[in-house]
Amino acid sequence: MRGLLLGCLLLFCAALACAEESLGSLRLLSGGFAPEGASFRVEVEFSGLKATSRETKGLSSLAVPASAVRVGGWADGNGATAWLEVSCVKWPIGLYDGSLAAAHLVVANASAVPVHATLSVRISPQGEIHALSFEKHAFLVDGRLILISDTPSRGAILAESPFASRPLSPQDQAHVESVRGECRGEMLYDLTLAPGQTQTLGLICPIRLPKGSEPDLDFYRALKLEELFDAAQKQVGAGSNGKP
After folding, report:
1. What's the CA gap between 71 and 54, in Å, rounded?
2. Considering the domain boundaries, does residue 243 fall inside one?
3. What is the pLDDT of residues 173-224, one digit of tens each?
4. At 40, which CATH number?
5. Among candidate residues 104, 103, 56, 48, the one with its CA nearest the CA of residue 81
6. Which of 2, 87, 126, 196 is deepest in the core (most CB within 10 A)?
7. How many CB atoms lie within 10 A of CB 168?
8. Does the predicted model carry a pTM greater than 0.85?
9. 137-176, pLDDT tens digit by residue?
10. What are the DSSP E strand ranges found in the chain?
């Protein structure tokens, strides 16, 4: 009987460890991020603003849960600045917990004149991407949602390889395929900020989903970025078992 109880306890501990391990982690890049083990990375670039020093304090990755960390900054030298911060949160998806990355891209104009800039949010191969789609301001890889914007974009430009011909203007819906797995794309925003104005754009990226679960776009659209950031902070304070 004692052996049976010990065996059950070991199985329970193993299951708990697997559940915690399945939360995954997020790799931090200069001006971007990528879920550990994913076939893609997310990169941010501005026209008119130059990248400044990375602000991750030597971090190379975030384990779920993790409170907000800055992973990139930009400035034009005249008072316009931008920064990208990300957090990782455990979140209920269906009957089980999954993990999401929530990202805020904040653009501020402290100058005395209006600022105009084009923002590019890019999906690039981190491995192989054989099929990339864009619709309703979200990217999909092989039909799975990988990056969702909470702010309407001007559309996206997709390409099947680094040197393939590209559409001249962004499209509301697009799809490309590549035998070599070299698909890539960029979602574009035209930003105009009045003096003293600040604008925040939000992005959601799945890190690890429960097995057999593929949330639809409505699920992600119902999420609020501030609630995800707040939940991540609370989970870090409560330990890895913190709840949203």
Report:
1. 6
2. no
3. 999 999 999 999 999 999 999 999 999 999 999 999 999 899 999 999 999 9
4. 2.70.98
5. 48
6. 87
7. 6
8. yes
9. 999 999 999 999 999 999 999 999 999 888 889 999 999 9
10. 25-29, 32-35, 40-47, 50-51, 61-63, 66-75, 80-93, 96-109, 115-125, 131-135, 138-141, 144-149, 155-159, 174-177, 184-193, 198-208
